[in-house]
Amino acid sequence: MRLKREVYIGELNKDFIGKEVTVSGWVLRRRDHGGIIFLDLRDRSGLLQVVFEEDIDQEVHNLADSIRIEYVVSVRGKIRKRPEGMENPKISTGDIELVATDVEIHNTSKTPPFPLDEDLSEVSEALRLKYRYLEMRSPEGLTPFIFRHKVNHSIREFLNSRGFLEIETPYLTKSTPEGARDYLVPSRLYPGKFYALPQSPQLFKQILMVAGVDRYYQIVRCFRDEDLRADRQPEFTQLDMEMSFVEEQDVMALIEELMSYIFEKNLGITLSTPFPVITFEKALEEYGTDRPDLRFDLKLQNLSELFKDSSFKVFRGALDAGGVVKGLKAPATFSRKELEDLTKFAQDLGAKGLAWIKYSKNGKTFEEKWNSPIVKFFEPSVLERLVEVFKVEEEQVTFFFVADSKEIANLVLGELRKHIANKLNLIPQGVFTFTWVVDFPLFEWDDEENRLVSVHHPFTHPKEEDLPLLDTDPLKVRARAYDLVLNGIEVGGGSIRIHRKDLQQKIFKLLSISEEEAEEKFGFLLNALEFGAPPHGGIAFGLDRLIMLMLGKKSIREVIAFPKTQRAQCLLTGAPAEVKIEQILELHLLPGWEKKPKTE
Amino acid sequence: MRLKREVYIGELNKDFIGKEVTVSGWVLRRRDHGGIIFLDLRDRSGLLQVVFEEDIDQEVHNLADSIRIEYVVSVRGKIRKRPEGMENPKISTGDIELVATDVEIHNTSKTPPFPLDEDLSEVSEALRLKYRYLEMRSPEGLTPFIFRHKVNHSIREFLNSRGFLEIETPYLTKSTPEGARDYLVPSRLYPGKFYALPQSPQLFKQILMVAGVDRYYQIVRCFRDEDLRADRQPEFTQLDMEMSFVEEQDVMALIEELMSYIFEKNLGITLSTPFPVITFEKALEEYGTDRPDLRFDLKLQNLSELFKDSSFKVFRGALDAGGVVKGLKAPATFSRKELEDLTKFAQDLGAKGLAWIKYSKNGKTFEEKWNSPIVKFFEPSVLERLVEVFKVEEEQVTFFFVADSKEIANLVLGELRKHIANKLNLIPQGVFTFTWVVDFPLFEWDDEENRLVSVHHPFTHPKEEDLPLLDTDPLKVRARAYDLVLNGIEVGGGSIRIHRKDLQQKIFKLLSISEEEAEEKFGFLLNALEFGAPPHGGIAFGLDRLIMLMLGKKSIREVIAFPKTQRAQCLLTGAPAEVKIEQILELHLLPGWEKKPKTE
Fold this sequence. Notes:
2 copies of one chain form a homodimer. By secondary structure, chain A is of the alpha+beta class.
């Protein structure tokens, strides 16, 4: 290298006027005005105008003349004040420019497949992922990764200051599928045996508590071979934590401090603590979901009681079948077309239909007040009761109703609530509203497997007062679990764990895991529980998702340097890819796939 | 939990005398003196004597009476000064004790398979790994992991302060075997395709440089499916770094600062910088290895010139075959038995034999001065020259000689040098001697594959002045590579990378990697090099090994929480393990192993 960088562009300012410097970077833009060449030179820290004047050394001018966008160059020259009226207040170096005396071209560049100085959100994601290095190099391209770096560091700062130890746990471990599917890694040394990539370090962190670590954390990769729906990745990053001698409120209080620290430090936002706590039951009742978005109100109301004597056959039918009638008040009225769309929205989620009633507070007559094909089925007193139940203060509102099983009614109205809030711009932006959800059921019934399954995982401690229910009515047992929800999205989940072998065995039994299977899969945990396992609990955060939310991004792919697509492919490297047949045979495996075209 | 911890044991001191506290931990020892029960209670931070006196509440006394070692308990009571003469200066709470008023037993414990309050180095490693959680819980058991945690944090502190960004790269990536064997991960969605676990994030960090990240690092897991020799692990942790617009000396200077920072911060040791730099050629010549241990002298000498006219047929034969005669001076004499052992040592390494000559400076006669079956073959002037060459100042020394190919002579004498230094206690302990090794050859010849292979990896930049040799004598081309050696063990290695596509293609060609293969494996890198790749270079450290050396441990397994054995097994979890056949079939694979007994 002939010209070596002396300073980052972002460090330059008026103090450098008159000084000679060498900077290095990429050419974002290039202009040529009657022999004067202007380059906008960019490094990670900023943008600088570089001028090659006419009277420059001819060889240097020729070199400069050959420079195209995205060439990578070092330029030496003198910093001067920009001519009056030519300042650019948008950039930190807007008052100055570099008058070049020398240039070195480190590398040329083909023309990028998309211009880097424009808004890249119009570029297809597939193209951006294939050329991720160009997207990252664009002026705002590194912002999410610099932010992520800082968040990670502030997490570590906080946890280290609280006595947490970051301890690395294995990635080549044992397959214990209970929940999602494991990624398997064939073993060459042990024919027929496999490692598995961890879905989380759950068992290891519990073992670390048995080991007396007391406070553990790890920013760690986790792997789930799931059918990728929504915004999931085959590998994702978790902030994993565990503490000994704690109860729910200890973990929750610490996490509130942690969140306050990282939001303050990285966004300058002061969170209000303690975070509200809502039970699973109440969350479903009022928001239709266990991940309620509390940035806005619009609570659901259970109207089963109100409509219990209704002759309206849609409501009647649902109630008679043991279902519910639930309602939602939207502070607006909707056109016929809009109501049709909302009905379609509800039906796509599984509702048979969506009943609605428009209400105008100031309507003089019944007809002016109540507008809906179904009002005729209801006593006016029932309708007036609606106004009371929903505490209507607005001039005009629309009530929506779903009469169905509790599950469908909650799902549909929960989603409708968010949909309408979005549509009506009821969701404040730039606001971060946390809530804890607690008192989850420990088990749910899996129809397919015809057995109880864990709502969280089999190591979750039941509530002490519900322990007797394990024998009588296990579906009623509540878990010592807590999920952290931010703006309607689950960002973390945890629990107090079982630390006694007998209780752990009882839970396995209730989950129809045989003693033999429990021993085979979890024997090492059961062993450890026999050697002085302390009471302990913890939590894990989806770090990709948390950072996405902090940045106001729409997808976790925006905050992962080299993400996979929804179809689990890396568009940059082409992974997964074919390997030599020898590599497979060496793993004591045989091809079991049909010949498929290479493009698959 | 009835009794909740209020304070860590390590925080207690005389200031707490008279105060009531609740502590939690494990019972390391238990004594019973006429109704008074003494427990040594241990948490991560320290050890505390707990006394249950006779006049305590009967129920509490009964509980205390049932407590055995490694039970996990909380104890409430009052801190008091220990009786005169009962102080224990070895522990920080040695002046005080806790007089218990209440106790809660959180969990019982079976008797541990080895006592935790004794030196565990006598316990077999297999047993310690199976019960890793007990080993870690022993009084010094967490020390390596607390240390490792702190080192990692100080690395991050330093690098963050220098503008480095920690960016996470994928673990599910593409197989590009060039060097060690990849661990493969079958893909369920793409029959016949595989991800690979990264041997290092080499290509991603180069891509990040093309992306303008400028300074990258990552503390990252890497995976190599090698036949495990020496002290290797299938998964290990690397400190991975890369910088743009740099040359060798920039990376090396930064690393010297980094090492100084972490040694100062974590060991209180001030390293002397700059570290010495030795060329590959000179390292082999003088130390017989490219990982010289510079804590002690004992340089090898090439004696080929001295013995060029010798009639001694062993030397003669080696020299005539194009080999060398090299020698080593040990500042001691050895018994016949010792000399036999040393000869065996040399032969095990491939030497045909080991010639030796004892020299006594003050010997009055030739026979008193020179003692060896072979002295008769040499002119006295040649022998006197030996004394000069080796700058003998000691009264008695022994010269050792190996006459063989350069490779064998270097290997044998290099190992013998360390062996003798150990035997003679010439290696100062607690000393950390770094050295850079540079000017490695870019290629070496692989007889098995019958082609050139990279000494480091194919992305290493050749020395500028050696570029013409690529066409004429590629084995003479030196690399812009640098290895960091600490006390004779390689802890890091790096290089300036190739940033131009044409040169990268040329290197692939010299490595007999076809254009098609290069495109298939490394196409994404070659593409990236066409879009303004900057000059860049970096380095990677084996973090396990560095921490092992800092702690003076003998094996990296001592500093990894859950290591695998030399046979790649996890003795705690039993990984790798069998999986359900359905899991294999779902990955479009078929069993290809013979039925083997389950114990394999």
